[in-house]
Amino acid sequence: MLFSKNTKAPLTTDSMSSSSYSNTVVIMDVIRRTPCHPWWRFILIVIILSLETQLISSAPDFTKHLHSILRNHTAFACENHILSIVCPPRTSVSVLSAFYGRHEVIPNLCPSVPNNTVEENIHCTSAVAIEKVKSECQDRQSCHVSVLSLFLGGDPCPLTTKFLQVSYKCQPQHHRTRLVCENGRLKLLCKNSTVLAIYSATFGHMLHGSPSCPPEAGSHSDMECMSSTALRKVSRRCHGKENCSLVADVMTFGNPCFPGTRKHLRVSFACVPRYLLEDVGFVSRDPFMIPDYTHDFPEKVVLYFVSGICAGLVVLEIHYNSSRSDGGYFEVITQGEGRTEEKPSGWLVLSGNFPLSFAAARWPLADRVPISFKVLPGDHEYPKCRTKRTSYEWYIPKGILKTGWMNKHLNLVPALVVLFYELDWEDPQWKEKQSECATKVEIVRTSLQGRNTKVAVVLIQKKTPLPPGEDLVASERASALCNACDLSGKSLFVLPHTDHLVGYIIRLENAFYEHSQTYYYTEIRRVKSHKEFLNKTTHQLLFVRHQFKIAFFSELKQDTQNALKYYRTAYSLIHELRAHETNMLEIKTMAGFINYKICRLCFQHNTPLDAIAQFRKHIDLCKKKIGSAELAFEHAAWMSKQFQSFGELFDEAIKLGLTAIQTQNPGFYYQQAACYSQDRKQQAHQLCQTEIIYPTTDPLSGTLDFYGQRSWRQGHQSIDPPDTEKEKTGILALQIKEKGVPHSELIIALLSNAVAQFKKYKCPRMKSHLMVQMGEEYYHAKDYTKALKLLDYVMCDYRTEKWWGLLTAILTTALRCAYLMASVKDYIIYCMELLGRASTLKEEQKLKIEKNLTKVLQNEVPDAELECDPSSVSAAKSLWGDRMALAGANEVTIEVQDYIPFIQCKAKFLSPSFHVDQPIQLQVFLKADGPNPVSFSKLAVSLSNQEYNQWCIIESSSQNTMSLVPGKTKCYNFSFVAKTEDVGKKIEMTGIELLLGSVRGRCVFLTWRGAGGDIASPHEALQASRSSRRWGRSLETQEQDWDNVTLQHSTMIISRIPKISVQLSHQPPVLNNEMYCLNVTIRSQEEGVAKDVKLTAGLKPGQDANLSQTTHVALEGSKICEDSAAALIPDILLGDLNPDQKLEKGIFVRCSTTGPRIFLFHVAYFVDTTVEGRQIVCKCHKDEIVTVETVVPFEVSVKFVSTKLEPLERVSMDIPFLLMTDVISSSPWPILLSSSSLELFSLTSTSPDMKSQLEQTVLETGEGASECFCLCCPPVIDNNNAIATGQYSIAWRR
What we know:
six-stranded parallel β-sheet
């Protein structure tokens, strides 16, 4: 597989890990006869690699489609919305769960209505929601569900905002599931030319277990644990194949659970035609690999071998580096090799005709990590093998582990040397080339003399080999070549130029891997064989060394379980050594390195609890092994490195799928690392002298033979140092080196990592606490800008939470930063806060701050702050001088509401509303908290209507100086007259401004938003709503209890109180359709003339629309008003009213329907008045409302009877009959029936004159009157049986 440096690596299960070492395979020169110029080689590789990169970038991304049908999906929607679910083509919805209701776990999902005063139920759910959702969505490609209680089985919690959340999978249309218990073999088989499409795979233990795999006695069956790599490993084994078989054991999938937990493997799959895979453009058997395009360039065999296998050469990152940037002693503590973040990978490198610097791809193997490769020339000299020791009887070890041993087995001594040679079986120069190849092999063997490293040969051929046994020439020559090179048949390989190049490469790599495994197995056995020669009296160090070597070789062999076992043994043995000052550093160095390996392997095995337990044990065992008191900072640095390294391991494990929690995350370990770095810094300042000179002869020069030893006494293991003077010189050199270490930078980096972790896991207080420490470290590092930025950010939280002691400490540091930066505005702000009520400083400290603040206000340079760095003070004074000399920069505006200043301000209107003929009054209360009185030059209140601002300003003068006495509340009153056009409008305070200083010095404008207050008293605005009983109460004295002062930032301008009376007289109820009279009497009680009096009368607006259509108002009642008459007559002119004058007006109303009605009588007028000496014209009005009921005056009934007074249902033509009408009064008042009439349509009357029989009849309540008419029905021309009689009318009045 090929890809360039910019190509994203394919997702593989083993692509990231925390192991560190690798198999080493060295491949020798490729021998070719054809010359090739270097520039042509360069162009060839660039072109081919570019072509490969382009091909791969266009490869279809199958992983996206596979991911969409494998993972669990979640969809949700709020109440009264639509929830939509859509799966990819040829898949269907499989509902896993459905929740309808509300739960406290996700309170911010679908928030409730802001004005809802009902307490919501956060523990409600619908039991039938899943059945409703399944009925709509199960086995469908898409569905849409209405989130309504009616549809989802009823409302589980009324008056609560609910939501629907559905968890589902998109499963193929045809899928099956197989389950096997731990250590069982799973077999999958497809028939009829179909292939396996893996849908899901899990290995571990479900929360409720599996009936097929019951848990063992005493197992942790109440916990769910799943392997994060199961799906990927099963997919690589089985995806796209017709059949596959694999074992469900921890060797294949790892152990995600506690020991003793019964696990099982569950695989969901489908046997599908290849079109299902072709639809997404990918038919590879490994859905996580990019397709192979190497067959397009078969002639570039060696290049593809380099790019396919050798690509991705990863330089081992050494955590225990030999850099001395952290101090000379730190080289001794941390130098070493082998702590890498990458998984073990050996090295394979080709030399010869093609440069390899362009290779940038890693070959992904499904079952194990790739081997790494390295290029070495054919005549490379390997490290000489020293003479093997035959006895340990008189051998005294000088140290635990040599510094070059790990590097030797990582980069110098290979497990396998492979010689690439271009040679065909039918080559005409076979003999010469065979001899040349044998010579090359012999050169390699000579260089490796004494080593167990194996040698292999790969023949690069142009033709495809025949099956074994068919090519007799090849068999014969292969045997001859093996004899000439002294090789076994398993060490000779052929790499042909064919379309199946990748397949041959994979086989080669597997063969190389097996050879390397054999080498490391041999090395482990060799080390173990030494144990019988050792004794625990003189060879304690060798026990540790040998256990470490066995663990190291096991790790290179990919046997991480045994590696962990032997590392733990080595760790136990190292703490059995007798520790003293001479060997303390060596013991801690090796213990720290072995602990790192153990923790990393525990994380790799998905047992984080074991890693945490090991690290805690390690810290407990080592934290008191301080060593030399003169080098105590070494121990603090070592402890810091331990916590930092574990935090990095923890963080890396989280990135690979481990779940962390708020109380157990990498942030705590980074924080502890920072704390020990701070201890290191403090101890270095105490122990490291500044006057001493570095020794002429450097005691720290030279390389170390063993980890953790001192360079001036290497190999010394006795308790007492061999040379006291050298010991003192070495300690002195380490102390001098320590002075040059940038401690603050180290601390800041660790704190920054901790802050990022605490922010990620939502620990705000821990994050704020560490940001304060970061700010202080920036201060010590003289980066005052960053320090001030961090401290200012954190202070907001501490002000809100009222941590006054912490806030004072932060403000003190911020004040020093502002002084050293000569930041005038910041300096003034922090001075004011430290003088305020939130400050916990002593009186003398506040006096000094107040003195400096006064100097700044007078445009003078302030005195240096206490505990400032003397080297920075002189530069700060120069900066202050420049600031004070700047012209036009003497005004500073500070919005103090975000701080807690030493001047407090509150303001309020004396009433929530004022009549327009009353002066508007407001009060501003000021209180100083400083040690001495505070003078100010100006106080101004800004209002929403800026025309009133001129009346709300007070300034000091020579006769009137304004000052505030500490602890005393002072009140300032303001009043102004509102304009008549502002009636009905609200006036608000938009801000308050206080001027400190003067134009001769520096002007500082303190501004408050609204009616004042500050961040320390947010409750004051709430108190205003509870203080209505205090309105109208004026202040009796200049002093008032500050806590009792409430804020009122707005008031309403309302109209003047009218001094007229409006009386209504009428006789209810209203009778239907009569002209009902409402008499209005208006009497003036004004002292002056009420001008332009207007009356608006009629139906009050805002009632039922039908009432306005059936109610009609008129000014005259002599005749019935038309239906077109309005329901409300506006602005009826009544003229002027003199004092005590009375005016009457009648309003007539006709109601054509019954029911209650509300009538409005609005009287408006103008009057001249005087307010505080100002003449204004006020518009006044008064409203009177009356409700009257409309009733029916009488009921009328009609009946047909014969001349014999018998009821008739039908009448006959030309036969007389009687029409009788009955009128019954329902009015509470007597009714006069003026007249009645009957107008006939089709009928005729038998009497020529039909006079009213009810004329001038008076009916009392409940009385009735009747009238009779004799009629006759004429012949009907058409056949219509129904005819119209006529219209009966009655004229009446009260």
